Amino acid sequence: MRRLILPMPGNEALAAALARACDGETGRVETRRFPDGESYVRLHGDPAGRPVDLVCTLARPDPGFLALVFAADAARELGAREVTLVAPYLAYMRQDIRFLPGECVSSRSFARLLSASVDRLVTVDPHLHRHPALSAIYSIPTATLQAAPLLADWIAAHVDAPLVVGPDEESGQWAGAIAARIGAPHVVLRKTRLGDREVRIDLPDLSRWRDRTPVLVDDIASSGRTLAEAARGLEAQGLPRAECVVVHALLADGAFEELAPRFARITSTDSVPHPSNRIALAPLLADALRRDLRD
Ligand SMILES: O=P(O)(O)OC[C@H]1O[C@H](OP(=O)(O)OP(=O)(O)O)[C@H](O)[C@@H]1O
């Protein structure tokens, strides 16, 4: 039976692209608030006997999370064969340890809640900071997809003579993979996180790369401080204005407007709907869903 692809509100474009790519049928999730502020959810489309894909970016997840859980519950109760959450951006991966006594380790709590609500999870480049894999915290089958090849292909097609730059050690893995795929050099900077919105970035001497266009690559742009500090360092060494390519453009509270003048362009995948989206994830996600279909 054809998959039923249900976008949570705001995720319609990605759901439509997925439906085209996997010959699925899109339905609709109607949500509204009751007068007392509680969430109302109604599914339009019949889940009975079919695989159901709930499509929902989890950027800023708190206001819509209950509605997502209710939609998954409704799909199960109405006979869905299996409910897969397609969440190209997976939230709550950054508080992965108890930094201070009494703190909630929200990556584990969120994983427990989602694992109880859906049967499978498909996501892209989750921020696996200290967790070795999603299976360390999620008890359901997960597909962890990598956007690096898509980022690499976009850079190869749009930037002349790139120098791939990872702003911190963790981004070294993407910077290396992207650079190798397009045959470009890469460098990795050193970051010290001083607070939620404060980082320090130390750069090696990059003067030999002044004839190259630096391309900062990272998994997440949130406050934008990491990218801003890295761009400042590159400017200070006289490199050309940088490009920036990220997987997940969270870019909260005016961060995009603040960052934009520092870069030739800011480019992101469409894991989080944002004006910087230029790299479509639907083919990658559809591939994973098709693989599931063959299982
Ligand atoms: O736009 P920003 O607000 O700078 O946040 C984005 C940066 O934070 C994350 O790394 P990091 O290891 O610093 O974050 P974490 O320790 O919070 O996981 C991520 O990989 C980005 O480099």
From TrEMBL:
Residues 6-116 form the Ribose-phosphate pyrophosphokinase N-terminal domain. It comes from the Bacteria. One of its GO terms (molecular function) is kinase activity. Residues 152-249 form the Phosphoribosyltransferase domain. GO terms for biological process: 5-phosphoribose 1-diphosphate biosynthetic process; purine nucleotide biosynthetic process. Keywords: Kinase, Nucleotide biosynthesis, Transferase. Gene3D superfamilies: 3.40.50.2020. This is Ribose-phosphate pyrophosphokinase. It comes from Luteimonas wenzhouensis.
